[in-house]
Protein backbone atom coordinates (compact mmCIF):
# COMPACT_ATOMS: atom_id res chain seq x y z
CA UNK A 1 0.00 0.00 0.00
CA UNK A 2 1.21 3.48 -0.88
CA UNK A 3 1.13 5.98 1.98
CA UNK A 4 0.13 9.47 0.88
CA UNK A 5 0.69 12.55 3.05
CA UNK A 6 -0.73 16.02 2.47
CA UNK A 7 2.75 17.34 1.67
CA UNK A 8 2.48 15.45 -1.64
CA UNK A 9 -0.73 17.27 -2.66
CA UNK A 10 -0.61 19.03 -6.06
CA UNK A 11 -4.16 20.10 -6.89
CA UNK A 12 -7.62 18.88 -7.79
CA UNK A 13 -10.36 18.88 -10.38
CA UNK A 14 -14.08 18.21 -10.13
CA UNK A 15 -13.71 14.49 -9.54
CA UNK A 16 -10.17 13.76 -8.35
CA UNK A 17 -7.38 15.03 -6.10
CA UNK A 18 -3.79 14.77 -7.31
CA UNK A 19 -0.64 13.92 -5.36
CA UNK A 20 3.01 13.37 -6.23
CA UNK A 21 3.79 9.66 -5.94
CA UNK A 22 5.84 9.37 -2.71
CA UNK A 23 8.15 6.73 -4.22
CA UNK A 24 8.58 8.29 -7.67
CA UNK A 25 8.34 12.04 -8.11
CA UNK A 26 7.88 11.65 -11.85
CA UNK A 27 4.45 10.11 -11.30
CA UNK A 28 1.11 11.53 -10.19
CA UNK A 29 -1.53 9.73 -8.12
CA UNK A 30 -5.17 10.63 -8.79
CA UNK A 31 -7.66 9.85 -6.03
CA UNK A 32 -11.42 10.09 -6.26
CA UNK A 33 -13.01 12.87 -4.27
CA UNK A 34 -15.67 11.87 -1.76
CA UNK A 35 -18.04 14.68 -2.69
CA UNK A 36 -18.09 13.48 -6.31
CA UNK A 37 -18.44 9.69 -6.06
CA UNK A 38 -18.84 9.39 -9.83
CA UNK A 39 -17.23 6.00 -10.13
CA UNK A 40 -18.66 5.40 -13.60
CA UNK A 41 -17.15 8.58 -15.05
CA UNK A 42 -13.66 7.80 -13.73
CA UNK A 43 -13.85 4.10 -14.64
CA UNK A 44 -14.92 5.12 -18.15
CA UNK A 45 -11.90 7.42 -18.45
CA UNK A 46 -9.49 4.69 -17.29
CA UNK A 47 -11.02 2.22 -19.76
CA UNK A 48 -10.50 4.77 -22.53
CA UNK A 49 -6.87 5.36 -21.50
CA UNK A 50 -6.21 1.61 -21.72
CA UNK A 51 -7.78 1.44 -25.18
CA UNK A 52 -5.93 4.36 -26.76
CA UNK A 53 -2.55 3.45 -25.22
CA UNK A 54 -2.73 -0.16 -26.33
CA UNK A 55 -0.95 0.17 -29.67
CA UNK A 56 0.61 3.62 -29.74
CA UNK A 57 2.50 6.24 -27.74
CA UNK A 58 0.68 9.56 -27.47
CA UNK A 59 3.12 12.21 -26.18
CA UNK A 60 0.37 14.83 -25.94
CA UNK A 61 -1.34 12.80 -23.16
CA UNK A 62 -0.08 12.16 -19.64
CA UNK A 63 0.49 8.39 -19.78
CA UNK A 64 -1.62 6.10 -17.58
CA UNK A 65 0.20 3.29 -15.73
CA UNK A 66 -2.54 1.45 -13.86
CA UNK A 67 -3.97 1.62 -10.36
CA UNK A 68 -2.62 1.19 -6.83
CA UNK A 69 -4.09 1.00 -3.34
CA UNK A 70 -3.26 3.90 -1.03
CA UNK A 71 -4.12 4.85 2.55
CA UNK A 72 -6.61 7.35 1.05
CA UNK A 73 -8.26 4.88 -1.32
CA UNK A 74 -7.60 3.56 -4.85
CA UNK A 75 -5.51 5.80 -7.09
CA UNK A 76 -4.74 5.85 -10.79
CA UNK A 77 -1.12 6.49 -11.74
CA UNK A 78 -0.09 8.92 -14.49
CA UNK A 79 2.97 10.82 -15.67
CA UNK A 80 3.64 13.93 -13.63
CA UNK A 81 4.32 16.67 -16.16
CA UNK A 82 7.38 18.78 -15.28
CA UNK A 83 9.17 21.71 -16.88
CA UNK A 84 12.54 20.74 -18.34
CA UNK A 85 13.99 24.10 -17.33
CA UNK A 86 13.33 23.74 -13.57
CA UNK A 87 12.07 20.19 -12.99
CA UNK A 88 9.07 21.79 -11.27
CA UNK A 89 5.52 20.57 -11.84
CA UNK A 90 4.23 22.24 -15.00
CA UNK A 91 1.44 24.76 -14.68
CA UNK A 92 -1.77 24.49 -16.66
CA UNK A 93 -2.92 26.96 -19.28
CA UNK A 94 -5.55 27.99 -16.72
CA UNK A 95 -2.77 28.93 -14.28
CA UNK A 96 -1.09 31.13 -16.88
CA UNK A 97 -4.36 32.76 -17.89
CA UNK A 98 -4.85 33.94 -14.31
CA UNK A 99 -1.46 35.66 -14.19
CA UNK A 100 -1.29 39.41 -14.53
CA UNK A 101 1.92 39.05 -16.54
CA UNK A 102 2.17 35.62 -18.09
CA UNK A 103 5.50 34.69 -19.73
CA UNK A 104 3.48 33.32 -22.65
CA UNK A 105 1.16 35.29 -24.89
CA UNK A 106 -2.45 34.45 -25.59
CA UNK A 107 -1.52 34.19 -29.26
CA UNK A 108 1.03 31.47 -28.49
CA UNK A 109 -1.54 29.47 -26.55
CA UNK A 110 -4.09 29.79 -29.37
CA UNK A 111 -1.50 28.56 -31.87
CA UNK A 112 -0.37 25.63 -29.70
CA UNK A 113 -3.92 24.59 -28.83
CA UNK A 114 -4.78 24.50 -32.53
CA UNK A 115 -1.79 22.18 -33.09
CA UNK A 116 -2.99 20.03 -30.19
CA UNK A 117 -6.48 19.88 -31.68
CA UNK A 118 -5.03 18.66 -34.98
CA UNK A 119 -3.10 15.92 -33.14
CA UNK A 120 -6.31 14.78 -31.45
CA UNK A 121 -8.02 14.58 -34.84
CA UNK A 122 -5.10 12.72 -36.42
CA UNK A 123 -4.97 10.10 -33.66
CA UNK A 124 -8.76 9.97 -33.12
CA UNK A 125 -8.43 10.83 -29.43
CA UNK A 126 -11.51 12.26 -27.72
CA UNK A 127 -11.29 14.71 -24.81
CA UNK A 128 -14.65 15.56 -23.28
CA UNK A 129 -13.21 18.27 -21.02
CA UNK A 130 -10.78 20.07 -23.30
CA UNK A 131 -10.17 23.18 -21.18
CA UNK A 132 -7.23 25.19 -19.92
CA UNK A 133 -7.56 23.42 -16.57
CA UNK A 134 -6.82 20.05 -18.15
CA UNK A 135 -3.91 21.08 -20.37
CA UNK A 136 -0.42 21.37 -18.88
CA UNK A 137 2.07 23.74 -20.43
CA UNK A 138 5.45 22.00 -20.26
CA UNK A 139 8.40 24.37 -20.69
CA UNK A 140 11.15 22.72 -22.70
CA UNK A 141 14.90 23.27 -22.45
CA UNK A 142 14.87 25.76 -25.33
CA UNK A 143 12.08 27.73 -23.54
CA UNK A 144 9.46 26.62 -26.06
CA UNK A 145 6.30 24.94 -24.75
CA UNK A 146 4.60 21.58 -25.22
CA UNK A 147 0.92 21.13 -24.36
CA UNK A 148 -0.02 17.88 -22.62
CA UNK A 149 -3.55 16.82 -21.67
CA UNK A 150 -3.72 15.61 -18.08
CA UNK A 151 -7.41 14.88 -17.55
CA UNK A 152 -10.87 14.66 -19.10
CA UNK A 153 -10.25 12.13 -21.87
CA UNK A 154 -12.96 9.97 -23.41
CA UNK A 155 -16.47 10.43 -24.72
CA UNK A 156 -20.03 9.36 -23.95
CA UNK A 157 -21.06 8.06 -27.37
CA UNK A 158 -22.81 4.68 -27.14
CA UNK A 159 -21.87 3.86 -30.74
CA UNK A 160 -18.27 5.14 -31.05
CA UNK A 161 -18.28 6.35 -34.65
CA UNK A 162 -15.80 9.03 -33.56
CA UNK A 163 -13.22 6.28 -33.01
CA UNK A 164 -13.72 4.75 -36.43
CA UNK A 165 -14.62 7.41 -38.98
CA UNK A 166 -12.36 10.47 -39.45
CA UNK A 167 -15.29 12.71 -40.47
CA UNK A 168 -17.03 12.15 -37.13
CA UNK A 169 -13.75 12.43 -35.22
CA UNK A 170 -12.98 15.82 -36.72
CA UNK A 171 -16.52 17.10 -36.29
CA UNK A 172 -16.72 16.14 -32.61
CA UNK A 173 -13.29 17.54 -31.71
CA UNK A 174 -13.99 20.77 -33.58
CA UNK A 175 -17.31 21.11 -31.74
CA UNK A 176 -15.58 20.69 -28.38
CA UNK A 177 -12.90 23.21 -29.40
CA UNK A 178 -15.56 25.76 -30.37
CA UNK A 179 -17.79 25.07 -27.35
CA UNK A 180 -14.93 25.76 -24.94
CA UNK A 181 -13.95 28.91 -26.89
CA UNK A 182 -10.36 27.74 -27.36
CA UNK A 183 -9.88 29.82 -30.51
CA UNK A 184 -9.38 32.89 -28.28
CA UNK A 185 -7.92 33.07 -24.79
CA UNK A 186 -10.08 36.09 -23.98
CA UNK A 187 -13.14 34.08 -24.97
CA UNK A 188 -11.85 31.05 -23.07
CA UNK A 189 -11.42 33.19 -19.93
CA UNK A 190 -15.06 34.26 -20.22
CA UNK A 191 -16.14 30.64 -20.72
CA UNK A 192 -14.13 29.52 -17.67
CA UNK A 193 -15.73 32.26 -15.59
CA UNK A 194 -19.18 31.14 -16.71
CA UNK A 195 -18.35 27.64 -15.42
CA UNK A 196 -17.08 29.02 -12.08
CA UNK A 197 -13.57 27.97 -13.04
CA UNK A 198 -11.96 31.41 -13.21
Distance between the termini: 36 Å
Mean pLDDT: 91
Secondary-structure-derived class: alpha+beta
Note the run of SSEs as H and E. Answer: EEEHEEHHEEHH
Structural domain count:
2
Across the major sheet, the strand order is: 1-2-3-5-4
Number of helices: 5
Strand content: 15-25%
Q: Percent of residues in helical segments?
A: 25-40%
Low-confidence runs (pLDDT<50, min 5 residues)?
none
What layout of secondary structure does this protein have?
Blueprint: E1 9-12, E2 16-20, E3 27-32, H1 39-52, E4 64-70, E5 73-79, H2 93-98, H3 106-123, E6 135-139, E7 145-149, H4 166-179, H5 185-194
Antiparallel strand pairs: 1-2, 2-3, 3-5, 4-5, 6-7
Helix pairs in contact: 3-4
Can you characterise this structure?
This protein is of the alpha+beta class. It folds into 2 domains: 6-79, Phosphorylase Kinase, domain 1 (2-Layer Sandwich); 93-194. Helix content is 31%, strand content 20%. It is built from 5 helices and 7 strands. A 5-stranded antiparallel beta sheet has the order 1-2-3-5-4, covered by helices on one side. Strands 6-7 form a two-stranded antiparallel sheet. Helix 3 (106-123) runs antiparallel to helix 4. The protein is globular, with a radius of gyration of 17 Å. The protein starts with 8 loop residues before the first strand and ends with a helix. The relative contact order is 0.14. The model has no long low-confidence stretch (mean pLDDT 91).
Amino acid sequence: MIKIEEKFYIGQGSFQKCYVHPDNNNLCLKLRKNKHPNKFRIDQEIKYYKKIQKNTVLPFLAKYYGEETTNLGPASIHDLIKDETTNSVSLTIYDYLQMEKSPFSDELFVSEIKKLKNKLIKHKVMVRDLTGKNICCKILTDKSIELIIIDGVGHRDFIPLVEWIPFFTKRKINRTYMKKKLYSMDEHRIWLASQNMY
